[in-house]
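Today's session is about reading a structure prediction critically. Students often jump straight to the picture, but the first step is always the sequence itself: look for stretches that repeat, for charged clusters, for runs of hydrophobic residues. Only then move on to the predicted structure, which in these notes is written as discrete structure tokens rather than atom positions. Here is the chain we will use throughout the hour.
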Amino acid sequence: MIKAGIIGSTGYAGGELVRLLLGHRETEIVWYGSRSYVDKKYYQVYQNMFQIVDAVCLDDNMEELAQQADVIFTATPQGLCASLVNETILAKTKVIDLSADFRIKDVKVYEEWYKIEHKSPQFLEEAVYGLCEINREAVKKARLVANPGCYTTCSILTIYPLLKEGLIDASTIIVDAKSGTSGAGRGAKTDNLFCEVNENMKAYGVTSHRHTPEIEEQLGYAAGEPVYISFTPHLVPMNRGILATAYATLKPGVTQEQVRAAYDKYYEKEAFIRVLDQDVCPQTKWVEGSNYVDINFKIDKRTNRVIMMGAIDNLVKGAAGQAVQNMNLMFGLKETMGLELVPVFP
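Below is the predicted structure for this chain, in token form.
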């Protein structure tokens, strides 16, 4: 059994990790970390865990946790994992960080966008960006994985094949994305109160959202050159889900068949990526509660643009599910173990 510890187990992503790992036949949770609820029973924080989890919440003692766990998940705000991790810990256990601390390789870019000092830049080069469908072999050998962001997972996977195959003009990419409110976390914020969100839809982080450099860096690797995008996220009044709609100009002469062939080339054998039938647009409802990514595209012949669409559950494939997928790869397990979840409907 893999012994797992979760720092930040009472946030939305942490709670989803608990749900998934409880159903994972090769994993035992040995540490329910929560700075806000130390010594409180876990089920008292999440009543859905009544008579399922009787453990108490523990503080963020990564040094002690490294003695007990084979893998540590850090579902915490930016900066915490980087302030706690060190060589002694990584020599004893593997770390999967769900924050942004190790996603961006350039420390100056990280500090510019997140407005905090990076506490352990010495691990940036080693950390593997845990987008399994693209970095699978590197993840298998990693001891420190940077779990991708939710918007970035959806956006990158939606665009990647066409950029990798050179079918679109990288300088023309626009990403318009919508997310449910769980993506903003469980902390109390005025902007996320029911009366602020219900019957409302709004753009936020316009030109400044922190996932922008993460998307650009990973798409740059695909393109083989720096990529700069226009990225605008929106908050919509639902619990879960991300829908990303990306636009780009096609290279001259690119056909519908070439675009479809590119998606099939990269995703035909991927367990969690579903390239939908022609003319079927992805919807968040059809991936809810699952680790699936639904993708499709349409070509606008009038403008010579391709519209690329992707949908995920932001808490599963966008966070906890992807973290479990990374864990499976790191420990040589079947990649889909604990994640073969049928989307919930209605």
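Discussion point for the tutorial: The radius of gyration is 20 Å.
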